[in-house]
User: What shape does this take?
Amino acid sequence: DAGVIQSPRHEVTEMGQEVTLRCKPISGHDYLFWYRQTMMRGLELLIYFNNNVPIDDSGMPEDRFSAKMPNASFSTLKIQPSEPRDSAVYFCASSFGPYNEQFFGPGTRLTVL
Amino acid sequence: SQQGEEDPQALSIQEGENATMNCSYKTSINNLQWYRQNSGRGLVHLILIRSNEREKHSGRLRVTLDTSKKSSSLLITASRAADTASYFCASRRGNNDMRFGAGTRLTVKP
Assistant: This one.
């Protein structure tokens, strides 16, 4: 298995633009997590899914953020409109079962100018 | 609020020395996990210790858990320059979400 795949690896955009981050979890994993990492706030859980259903989105900072998981092999995190304070590294992770280790993707480094 | 607060925030040691990092958490947990992150990379799982376990070993890693003090420690023995990374503890609560601490930045000098 190639592990968790994220795209793009780097994204530079201008304030106000829509940004879509993509994630392909490890096949067979039933949990998918989106995290955001910044120097100031560390690693924050934004939202997680179980069997494609959003379970907890309390970490999503604002209505500008939305996430979907249309099927077991694909998820998106969308920011519309983007703002400079959204600049961060966004990680996707997946796991099998509720309490097991999470496997992280390489992350998407987002810069909003 | 963030669960899992590591200390120290930064640790610098010589190759061959042992490195100890501590983690405290606030609420009851199912398990506690330690992860490593190399600069510019995603996190990699190191070890998981369940709430009913007190100590666990994996190669040069030794993790302890004290649920009465809500704390855990990660010991890396005979450190190597390749161990240079940030180390995070993550506490897993009953509703399955996992909270990460701010991490300990470990530097191992050759």
About this structure: Residues 36 and 87 of chain B are 5 Å apart (CA to CA). Chain B touches chain A at residues 2, 30-31, 33, 35, 41-45, 48, 88, 92, 95-103 (CB under 8 Å). The two ends of chain B are 37 Å apart (CA to CA).
